[in-house]
């Protein structure tokens, strides 16, 4: 699933080839920052004419004795006080007698990510209310969010509601009759928070999405730092997410998909923290000595970070149903991580040990908790009246109905299946039975959505940005909307930064290599997160789906590119020339991606530009 079943040897390999106290980052590409004292320890010593000398020119270092068990379970974090010979600065600075203050060493892991998040936040909040109208599917979510905060459930709106909301003086034609909706309420509750503070205006319904988009940059920077054990790579990941066009556009539009991405990323981050904390507890129990019996019998105790991950998965599902696949992927991810921890601790049958000790707790923490969160998210609908027309849509369905179970169910891959028998469900509260019936209607709508749309796309084309989505388009002429030539264009195009995504395709191939052939658990974790956001859509290729759904896995695409950048920089023991060339190549890639974002920036923000400039940015006919 994620490479963890064969992952611990990668951790052992990393540390076995790395001197004690070295900043561990991307497996064999350990310490791509150049901040650790790699020296020449472990490099074969000869006159340079033998095979070992020739390999040494390419960064080869001979294996060394394994470090202590605690370091194999939890490699030290960079710039962490008390983490042994943690890097205190670049080698050139140390050679000049300069060292970072101890207080700065302890906070550098936050200062860099915060600076990158501030940069990304300024981009996202700058002129957030522009375009000053309701664009694309904001027409649904802005009004549904307002209804939720008014009455606890979504309602119908007049056909002229959009023009009335944007008029001066403003008129909000709110009505109380319920509306049939096809997505759970959490994302709309969140969007509505901004409307409650800033009013029913573009800034109001976009504010919370922009805030979550900015927070996700900070989260990703910290997640990448923990994953790769490198503050530099953490900041690179945050910067790349800041300048991804799809993430940028979705952070400035009141749709649900950016919110789904936020909760998925938060769940992944909590699982990563849980991994380190749990392994730290194992190291303390074993006291540095692997023990087969203890590794088999030990219970891993109370795991609040994994419970927090379950809550986040539940909130993702409660925003859009596509989040439910995350529960399966991440549930397996944490179990495989536990298998690896027990194996490295000495368990003779780690699969059996993890199945007995960790399988059920993982299921309860991720799946059961997410189900409870999901049902709780419908509290506004459940609390509404069950009188006809007085509560949420379908709230009165179970009133007076016999509580029989469903006759047919629709299953993935199998389609519509008849149940072998039916049983009485009258003992279930009528509100929950009405909710179940409502969900069956929602499910039928979602799987049978085949209405053609000019911007729909196939998930096979998403990674190469085959068909982006135009959220907003106008063609002003001379003198209109700041147009200074005969013909202009103003568009908000939901498309990723092309050079970042195309580099991501190469980076995913690199991660597949690291996971399958080098048994690198970090590559497996990145692929797991990306798979949770991408692979389920291949089951619904005939359904009407769009490229902007892919924002859910953008952070993991960025992590893949960041891991590849670490490999470009090179291992700590490589020659100065190798690391110089690698650093220049990595820096050039990052600068090109930033330039590419700036080049497409007018298309991300709806700026008025000459039509010739707009056509120059339509690199493919499928982008028009």
Automatic annotation (TrEMBL):
The protein's UniProt keywords, in alphabetical order, are:
Cell membrane, Glycosyltransferase, Membrane, Transferase, Transmembrane, Transmembrane helix
Per UniProt, the ranges with Polar residues bias are: 15-30
Keyword check for Nucleus, yes or no. no
The EC number(s) attached to this protein equal: 2.4.1.-
Entry's Pfam families?
PMT, PMT_4TMC
Q: Which family does it belong to?
A: Belongs to the glycosyltransferase 39 family.
* Name of the protein in its database record: Polyprenol-phosphate-mannose--protein mannosyltransferase
Q: Which organism is it from?
A: Kitasatospora nipponensis
The organism's lineage is: Bacteria, Bacillati, Actinomycetota, Actinomycetes, Kitasatosporales
